[in-house]
Amino acid sequence: MSGCHFVNIQLPLFVKSPPSSCSRETSLRSKHAMLGDSGKPACILVLALPLKPYVPTPVTVEDATSSRDIPPRETDMGLAARKKNKMNVENDSERMPVTGKGNVAEVQSDEAVHPSGGESHSGSDSESDSDYLGSSEEGDFEGNQSPVDSGAEDSYSSDYESDDKTGNVSGLTSDDQGNADENESSEQPQGGEESDSSEDEVAPRNTIGNVPLEWYKDEEHIGYDITGKKLKKKERQDKLDAFLASVDDSKNWRKIYDEYNDEEVELTKQEAKLVKRLLKGKAPHLDFDPYAPYVDWFKWDDAIHPLSNAPEPKRRFTPSKWEAKKVAKLVRAIREGRIKFDKPKEEQQVYDLWAGESSSPTKKSGHLAYIPAPKPKLPVLEESYNPPPEYIPTQEEINSYQLMNEEDRPMFIPTRYSSMRNIPAYDNAVKDAFERCLDLYLCPRVRKKRLNIDPESLKPKLPSRRDLKPYPVTCYLEYKGHKGSVTSISTEASGQWIASGSSDGTVRVWEVSTCRCLRIWEIGAVVQHVAWNPLPELPILAIVVGADVLILNTGLGSEGDQKKVEELLHVGVATSSDEKNPGVIWLQDDKYKAIKLQHFKTVSSVEWHRKGDYLSTVMPAAESKAVMIHQLSKKLTQRVPFKLHGLPVTSVFHPTRSIFFIATKKNVRVYDLLKQKLVKKLETGLREVSSIAIHPAGDNVIVGSKEGKLSWFDMDLSSQPFQTLTCHPKDITNVAFHRSYPLFASCSDDCTAYVFHGKVYSDLNQNPLIVPLEILRGHSSSNGRGVLDCKFHPRQPWLFTAGADSLIKLYCH
């Protein structure tokens, strides 16, 4: 661009022909600064074009402009004004002939603005331009200096643009490159007005080219000027100086730093208003109406004929065959692989080597999420070495803690010391601290993701209840006669008789099939438990009354059986308590013709051995002598040679082996009576055990608790419960297995009895099948108690239940 320089020119006139008084070298710089959202100059347009020289004519700019009509700016200019403008342009072109050697005149039609709609009428203007160019081509041109030369056609063109609102005109004219040293003042048109815009007086703006601005971030310069010299950055103010300057300057909020031009730009009030309206989502101009009424230009009241009577073309409602072929061609190319789509670029995973505890634990990454170690709880006021007096318990409270359960007992008892030196040091304090640090160091802490699993898929596939019949369903018989709650029941080995004990002090024997009460014993005290001898040839009954155990003769059976029972229940001399008989006295009871076993503590339960000669009694308050085993034939009593851990609840003999089960409140201990050693300890995990029952095969145990849970133990599998069933909302009073059918049941104080199907397979690899079958209802509550006992019939799938409402019910299939 040597030989060209920039001149600021403002032409307030709408010129169609080139001015005749232009200099040899003229360059027009037109800058249009548009305000963006940030208030910065959005773009700068610089045009510098060298044009062919031409010989000036006597006509001046004032004559040329005075001899033509300026298009009025009003919006109501009609067709007559446009025709008159066209005629004036043609007269000007005829009155301004171009002569001389190598002179060139080029004018392009301007874009006249339609006064009503803003549309350009290029038809009339192009005609005037073509006439003018035609006369120029017919002039005196010499050599190859024709304006339509193919090599210079683009660079020698000039445009005249008009704005429909401001009326400013930007024209491009040029002379020969020979006189490049003329002043800029001589290149301005004589008829132009002086610009009052401060932007036109600023030196040429910086242009860094089509490169990112970040490339100049660490450089001392920003871009280059037109001569190729570096433009140094301005020194930026210090933050403190800038802040102090902003406090003193009331117009500081209007100033914006222009990074591309390295300068501060101050917005005018009008520009600030535009920015505010844009930020509020409004139109930038006040006169713009976004809700203007719609004007349909193609409808009017007096319309008779439509705009077009042509029929609808077929292409409007028929699918295009060409488009279908084009789509098929593209699909074929995609399938053949000739058209390949760009795959998304995979971002390289970078591991932050220096990420510490300050990194966010929720940040998703390829490695395990960081989870901070749990902090120990801070000590509270009562854990102080010198707590307030109200936190220190009295001696009575400390004694009451010893009687509480281990779970309910407080772990820490506040104690007062005069100083910290008097506090007794914990022996394992250093060891515990070391183990805690070791746990925190070695224990992996991983944030587990929650799995979205359908709850229905977690339910086991159980067989249909129809396939598991028979089992008790409905109440068939009721045994009425007791006046108090029935505390215990027991069935005879043949299943023909049933015995019951009640809180009214009576023991009754019933016939199962007819509900007839065969015999009644008036004991005079609450009967805690009854148990029928398992041998059919020994129809004797053991009952618990307070601290005594009575072995009664029921009078059933043949004469031979009765003689055998009378001999068995005869005690010649009362045996006192000695080393062999600790705490138990065998007495002959003439009133009931029975044997009385007098204990030194209250007896809670009695159970027979399968052979019928041994029976066990449980005294929960007797500590080391809590469980006793009695031999009926020899009239001997011995305590269990095992150390009991906890208060015993009940005891049961194994149905086939010499194994003895003792249930405490927390655990169930299994002992071998022959080897006199502990075989297994079953961890129930229950709050308090209430009852226990052994499967006829002897390898499975069910345990009921006072929290309504029932645990099934597979002794061959583990010492932990195989399955824990939460069925009853109240305490479970008793559980029972059927001798021949795969059934077991539980009864509770909620006046219900649950019947389950429990099948044990001979294959050790197959787990037991437990299916809930039926909930038996019918008893009513009395004094907060419901069903107190339940027993299965030895041969039929029937269930007997004894309730606190003084009724015994038989449920059949």
TrEMBL record:
Supply one GO molecular-function term.
Answer: ribonucleoprotein complex binding
Cellular compartment(s): Nucleus, Nucleolus; Nucleus, Nucleoplasm
Q: Which Pfam families match?
A: BOP1NT, WD40
Spell out the Low complexity composition-biased ranges: 116-136
Q: List the GO biological process terms.
A: maturation of 5.8S rRNA from tricistronic rRNA transcript (SSU-rRNA, 5.8S rRNA, LSU-rRNA); maturation of LSU-rRNA from tricistronic rRNA transcript (SSU-rRNA, 5.8S rRNA, LSU-rRNA)
**InterPro entries reported in the protein's UniProt record:** BOP1/Erb1 (IPR028598), BOP1_N_dom (IPR012953), WD40/YVTN_repeat-like_dom_sf (IPR015943), WD40_repeat_CS (IPR019775), WD40_repeat_dom_sf (IPR036322), WD40_rpt (IPR001680)
Q: Which UniProt keywords apply?
A: Nucleus, Repeat, Ribosome biogenesis, rRNA processing, WD repeat
Q: Which residue numbers delimit the BOP1 N-terminal domain?
A: 216-472
Q: Where are the WD repeats?
A: 479-520
Task: Note down the stretches annotated as region Disordered.
Answer: 83-213
Listed GO CC annotations: nucleoplasm; PeBoW complex; preribosome, large subunit precursor
Which regions are flagged for Polar residues bias? Answer: 167-177
Keyword Disulfide bond among UniProt keywords: no
Function, in words: Required for maturation of ribosomal RNAs and formation of the large ribosomal subunit.
Q: Return the similarity comment.
A: Belongs to the WD repeat BOP1/ERB1 family.
Name recorded for this polypeptide = Ribosome biogenesis protein BOP1 homolog
List the source organism. Trapa incisa
